[in-house]
Design a protein that fits this description.
The complex is a heterodimer of chains A (344) and B (515).
Chain A (H helix, E strand, L loop, with lengths): L1 H13 L1 H16 L6 H26 L7 H17 L2 E3 L4 E3 L3 H25 L4 H20 L4 E2 L18 E2 L2 E2 H19 L1 H11 L1 H6 L4 H27 L1 E2 L7 H11 L11 H20 L4 H36 L2
Antiparallel strand pairs in A: 1-2, 3-6, 4-5
Helix pairs in contact in A: 1-13, 2-12, 3-7, 3-10, 3-11, 3-12, 4-5, 4-6, 4-10, 5-6, 5-10, 7-8, 8-10, 11-12
Chain B lengths: L4 E12 L2 E12 L3 E5 L6 H8 L7 E6 L2 E3 L4 H6 L2 E4 L11 H6 L5 E2 L3 E2 L1 H14 L15 H13 L6 E5 L7 H16 L3 E5 L3 H7 L2 E6 L2 E7 L5 H9 L19 E11 L5 E11 L3 E6 L5 H8 L7 E6 L2 E2 L5 H6 L2 E4 L3 H5 L6 H6 L7 E2 L2 E2 L1 H14 L16 H13 L5 E5 L7 H16 L3 E5 L3 H7 L2 E6 L2 E7 L5 H21 L1
Parallel strand pairs in B: 3-10, 3-11, 6-9, 9-10, 15-22, 15-23, 18-21, 21-22
Antiparallel strand pairs in B: 1-2, 1-4, 4-5, 7-8, 11-12, 13-14, 13-16, 16-17, 19-20, 23-24
The chains are: A mainly alpha (344), B alpha/beta (515).
């Protein structure tokens, strides 16, 4: 009897992110008449794509037991690099020439810069044993500073490109393709890749093992430093992609873009059940988490809740999510113990 | 109530959701005696002790001390009544030093606010000296070896005032024979002073040596209680498991001189930080299919041998040859690919990934062998894991269950299975039977023998004399980083091993005198 009750509670706990999301949608539908419309849906989806992509990279990092605070700043830098390359090209001063790249090259270069920042994070963390929090706090400032240096703090506006230079088309990243925002399509692609990596490759299981018990992972022959570095590179890549999508959505790149987004990414991961102590997390959960953040953000804006209150409420939601998570874990541990005793 | 009974527990029940960990057990703790409590893992002995020490509360049942009913909401309630406990799992702070650990929660102060560190250091030195185990009080506990850490845990309890009952849950599981002697001497001092000791151990020889009375639990129920002088080891084992079980006997007729050498270690030397050597020009070899035992006191350099072989100690010097070829040891990953497997000493901290399932823990070292195009072939992986589970008889209902749902013995088999799954030629086992019950121990030995028969060469580190004598074809003894003995066949006797394990310290002193 008791066992049955527990199973019921467990199912509810496991499906809680869905439940919260459903409740939020119902709540905002009642609170604001315009909420349950296609337009609102598309707006939210555009935002969710940003939180989601960043959140997936963050989920990987948190699974290894780390944290990446540099994601927002790298996204900002990514936007500035892409915007700058479109509007001003790359000037090589000693030669006195300016090169304009085509859009595919611009996307590649920007993504590469994100990956390089991840590599930097990973190397500092694994080679010099600096705590991920401090490392990424440092690179966060470096990336943010570089984003501002690129334009002296100014915004690159109207980044449509120029037919004559052959670099138009970047803003498609911010448009709808067949009625679906491009960002959402990219989110789906990255999510599918991330799910497959995590579930069906040794790499995925290795990073889960590193987060679960790094010492045991090392003694099992897993190349802990290499895999950890790869994870930060993936996070950097995701951030740069987010920076580009955001710039394309606004058709402008501003050096302050992405400030505070690391909190959205961490919140999405945590709401989705990723454990801050490492070893546990799913990509699907993080995407639902991103939806919750998106619905809360846009829903409250539509209801006229001030931005300041929004922050207070988001903070409470994240802490509540972790508390429920802890509760689930202790219940799970009890059930495991029970199973162990029953099997005797 | 008998005046010799310091604590009487009546009809203790402890129900966890869905299971009865303790079923109507009554228990008397006798004053000034070593009260031994034994039973296989899961028999309920640790549960009973947790109730007495106030760590958990009984579902029903009463406890009496001095004809007065007592109940403990937490450990400090129990402490006030003079009950102390030394845990099986260490509960130390690796980030703090020795005296901070010893005085945690009972800090001495001058003027109520300022910590009296001078007193802390003095007291620490006094108690450690009494334990014949001098450690600098300012050493970080995390830097100590497991055995030393256990001494710190023991030292903590020795400081408690008006101690009436001291519960020791497997305190000797990582101590060497000589440290155990010191501990036993102290226990006798305690009992002479009228303190009751409740002693839980898997080492039956110890129980016969130190115990006054023995209580046996099985499956949460009381089985028997007897004075030690009236019984012998086979009787205890019989009560515990319900049938006669003992360590397996070794009986292999192989002419080892004709077997090929698979591993040769020459002049293995590992410097100690702050001078001296952890390993001092150690030489040994390993034949195909042989089980080589390494015996020694803790700190003798046993684990370090494994660490050097596995590439975790790049600062070592000396040569290691595998199949006659000198190895360039780069990393642990490479060494696993070169055909080595290691089962580490600390199962929880180094052997298992607690967040993963049983199956994934087994497959962890060999996942890359089951891939096609970068993706894991689930069927291929499952086949290998299932076969391994069957081969080494891991008792598991479903391999997708969390690893912590297994008993300690089966967890250990998972760690061994993980190593075996990489199909090693050479298997390194560091204390493979630590903290598991006697039934599981026998099974672990069976696994070791089974794979040795198949031609896997095995090196086993063990602190238990009887164990190493029964399992090994040949034993080398390390003492203070020096190889002090090598014994084969009937030369392997407990006396010889103990004698050799002391020799290194003598020479070390002489070395110093010569300097």
């Amino acid at each position: 009897m008791m066992g049955k009750n527990k199973n019921w509670v467990m199912t509810l706990l496991k499906g809680r992110t869905f439940l919260i999301l459903a409740l939020l949608i119902i709540f905002f539908s009642i609170a604001s008449q315009n909420f349950l419309t296609l337009n609102t849906g598309l707006t939210i989806a555009k935002h969710v794509a940003l939180y989601g992509i960043m959140g997936i990279g963050m989920t990987y990092v948190i699974i290894t037991g780390g944290i990446d605070l540099s994601v927002g700043a790298v996204a900002g830098l990514g936007g500035m690099v892409a915007g700058g390359l479109i509007n001003e090209g790359l000037t090589i001063a000693p030669l006195g020439i300016t090169i304009y790249f085509g859009v595919p090259w611009i996307i590649l270069i920007t993504a590469l810069i994100g990956v390089l920042f991840g590599l930097l994070n990973g190397l500092i963390i694994t080679k010099f044993n600096v705590a991920p929090f401090i490392t990424t706090l440092g690179t966060m400032n470096i990336a943010r500073g570089m984003a501002n240096l690129r334009s002296g703090g100014a915004t690159f506006s109207n980044i449509y490109g120029n037919e004559g230079l052959g670099n138009t088309g970047f803003n498609y990243l911010g448009k709808n393709i067949a009625g679906i925002p491009a960002g959402v399509i990219i989110l789906v692609i990255i999510a599918v890749v991330a799910v497959c990596l995590l579930r069906y490759t040794p790499f995925g299981w290795h990073i889960l093992a590193i987060g679960g018990n790094a010492r045991a992972a090392k003694l099992s022959g897993i190349k802990v430093a290499k895999k950890t570095t790869l994870v930060y590179m993936f996070s950097g890549f995701c951030s740069a992609v987010v920076g580009m999508i955001s710039a394309a959505q606004l058709v402008a790149a501003h050096p302050a873009t992405g400030e505070g987004w690391e909190m959205n990414a961490i919140s999405a991961a945590v709401l989705g059940g990723t454990s801050m102590s490492g070893g546990v997390g799913t990509v699907g959960g993080t995407i639902i988490g991103a939806f919750i953040i998106g619905v809360i953000n846009d829903g409250m804006t539509m209801c006229g809740v001030s931005e300041f209150w929004q922050k207070v409420i988001k903070g409470i939601v994240v802490i509540a999510a972790v508390i429920v998570d802890q509760f689930q874990r202790s219940l799970q541990a009890k059930m495991a113990l029970q199973a162990r005793n029953e099997s005797k | 109530m008998d005046s010799n009974v310091v604590l009487h527990a009546e009809g203790m029940n402890k129900i966890y959701p869905g299971t009865k960990a303790l079923d109507d057990v009554s228990y008397d703790v006798m004053k000034g005696k070593v009260n031994v409590l034994i039973g296989e893992n899961g028999a309920g002995k640790s549960t009973l002790m947790k109730l007495i020490a106030g760590i958990e509360q009984p579902s029903s049942g009463k406890m009496y001390m001095d004809d007065e009913e007592v109940s403990f909401k937490n450990t400090s309630d129990a402490k006030k009544r003079g009950i102390g406990i030394i845990h099986q799992e260490l509960s130390l702070f690796p980030n703090l030093n020795v005296c901070q650990n010893i005085f945690m929660g009972r800090e001495q102060t001058t003027g109520k606010l300022k910590l009296d560190n001078k007193k802390h250091v003095e007291e620490t030195n006094r108690v450690l000296k009494k334990l014949e185990h001098v450690i600098n009080p300012n050493t970080m506990v995390g830097d100590l070896r497991v055995g030393q850490q256990q001494m710190i845990e023991i030292a903590r309890n020795f400081l408690q005032d008006d101690l009436k009952i001291l519960i020791m849950d497997e305190p000797t599981s990582s101590l060497s024979e000589q440290e155990v002697e010191v501990l036993f001497k102290l226990m006798r001092e305690f009992t002479d002073a009228g303190i009751a000791i409740v002693y839980i151990s898997h080492r039956l020889e110890e129980i016969m040596q130190i115990g006054d009375n023995v209580t046996i639990l099985r499956d949460g129920k009381y089985v028997a209680r007897e004075e030690v002088k009236n019984i012998d080891v086979p009787w205890i084992v019989q009560q515990m498991v319900g049938e006669g079980k003992s360590y397996p006997k070794k009986d292999r007729e192989i002419d080892w001189s004709k077997q090929e050498k698979v591993l040769e270690v020459k002049d293995l030397t590992l410097p100690k930080s702050g001078g001296g050597y952890l390993l001092n020009h150690v030489n040994f070899d390993l034949k195909k299919g042989e089980i080589l035992g390494i015996y020694g006191l803790m700190g003798a350099g046993r684990t370090e041998v494994f660490e050097c072989i596995m590439g975790m100690r790049p600062e070592h010097t000396g040569d290691i040859y595998k199949n006659g070829k000198r190895m360039k040891i780069k990393s642990l990953h490479d060494q696993i690919e070169n055909g080595f497997a290691i089962v580490p000493e600390d199962r929880q901290a180094e052997g298992l990934v607690q967040t993963m399932s049983i199956g994934k823990n087994i497959a962890l070292s060999s996942l890359e062998n089951y891939t096609r195009g970068g993706f894991i072939q689930k069927k291929n992986e499952d086949e290998h894991v299932d076969k391994q589970i069957k081969d080494i008889m891991i008792k598991v209902a479903d391999k997708n269950l969390p690893i912590l749902s297994l008993s300690g013995g089966n967890q250990q088999k998972v760690v061994i299975g993980k190593g075996l799954l990489t199909q090693p030629d050479i298997m390194l086992l560091d204390e493979p039977s630590r903290g598991i019950d006697i039934g599981a121990k026998t099974e672990v030995f069976d696994i070791i023998n089974q794979y040795a028969e198949q031609g896997v060469s095995i090196i086993v580190i063990s602190s238990e004399l009887k164990e190493i004598v029964s399992i090994a074809d040949r034993v080398i003894v390390l003492s203070n980083g020096i190889k002090t003995g090598e014994f084969i066949h009937e030369e392997i006797t407990e006396d010889q091993l103990v004698l050799s394990s002391y020799e290194g310290h003598g020479t070390h002193k002489k070395e110093k005198e010569n300097e």
